[in-house]
Amino acid sequence: MVSVGDIIGELADVQGICQSKVAHASKLGMCKTLALKVQKLDKVTSSNVLQLVTSMEACVMDDAYKSIIQTAIDARVAGNVAKKGNGTQELVNILCFLSELDWQKLGQPNLSAEERRAIIVNRYIKLGIRNPSEQTGKWVISLVLHFYKRDTGAWPLYSTIYQWLLAFKREIGQSKLPYLHDAPEIYPNSPADLPMDMLVDGYEVDDGPVTKAVPAFDKYGDHIPLRSNSLLLIREQQRLHGAAKGGMPYGGFNQHQFMSMRGGAKQEPYDPYGPIAAGQRQPANACPAFAQFPAGGQFAWPGDTASAHLDGGAGAPALASAAHGGAGDTASAPGSAPACQRMDAIQIQALRFRPTPAWMPSSLSLRPP
């Protein structure tokens, strides 16, 4: 563990290096390393403070180097280090804080969401952000979403967007790059209002911040789920769950309508003889001729003049019962006096692939012609 005595001893060494002919970059690196050690001091008493201040006053080096160490000492004494305990940092006006080179990289076609997120994370780390708030993450992912939609023309699942947000927080929180300035908890709307030392470390000399306009950017923020219990995630899960089970899921959209809204497959007309897609059901007012079962256990396919009577053969009552699956849902069969009961699409599908019983004449079949 670093002590105040260690800091004072190393300060004398750094002073000698700064007065030598060593390259400027090496001198700057030594000063920043010492400043980082000052911030990591465990306990600083009034006696320690007096020792540090006295040593700094006696130190002879250029102000450019001396100010780095002095800033770290002042911050440590005040207990105001850049990364504040559980406090979060909020930067919402992302369109003003990226550099020209950042925008050029983000605008490249067909970059993945991960690659675009990494560009923004790199800039935010240089600006001192280590613990982003919900609103900070919201507008970062909104910009990633804008470019994703521009490239693909599609809208990702809300669960995917939420994973982007979690990854952003994780990546920026794992940064080990030390930050020597007093980063604010709430960033101004313009980088011009940041302290000069933050601007110098946050941007390159020839690549400063540039403001760009993104059409309807504020609307993207409405589609960023910030927490796992977001209504955006809940409603999406209900819709997808309903589509998987079949029928009309949450919100009154079937699977094809839901996919059409998200740029997926369009809804096709119902084909009673074709494959039954997940979520597609027979309309309530439809009763295909081959699915009509008059009361009494008779059935007939379209075009058949004969009808089979299930009159007590083995397994006949079970078949008749299965055929009458839509209890209470009746309709009149053409040319038939008894009431007809309808089957929904799932029951029809099961019937189509049911093997013909051995006791049934070969001229009759449970499959449509």
Write the layout of secondary structure elements.
Layout: H1 4-18, H2 24-39, H3 46-58, H4 63-78, H5 100-106, H6 113-126, H7 134-152, H8 158-173, H9 196-202, H10 217-220, H11 231-245, H12 255-261, E1 293-294, E2 298-299, E3 308-309, H13 316-323, E4 330-332, E5 339-341, H14 345-352
Antiparallel strand pairs: 1-5, 2-3, 4-5
Question: Which labels suit this protein?
Answer:
5 strands; elongated; mainly alpha; about 375 residues; about 45% helix; 4 domains; 14 helices; two-stranded antiparallel sheet; three-stranded antiparallel sheet; single chain
Structure description:
By secondary structure, this protein is mostly helical. The chain has four domains: 4-78, no CATH class; 94-223, no CATH class; 232-261, no CATH class; 270-369, no CATH class. The chain has helices spanning 4-18, 24-39, 46-58, 63-78, 100-106, 113-126, 134-152, 158-173, 196-202, 217-220, 231-245, 255-261, 316-323, 345-352; strands at residues 293-294, 298-299, 308-309, 330-332, 339-341. The strands form two sheets. A three-stranded antiparallel β-sheet has the order 1-5-4, with no helix packed on it. A two-stranded antiparallel ribbon has the order 2-3. The longest helix is centred in the middle third of the chain and has 19 residues, at 134-152. The radius of gyration is 36 Å and the shape is elongated.
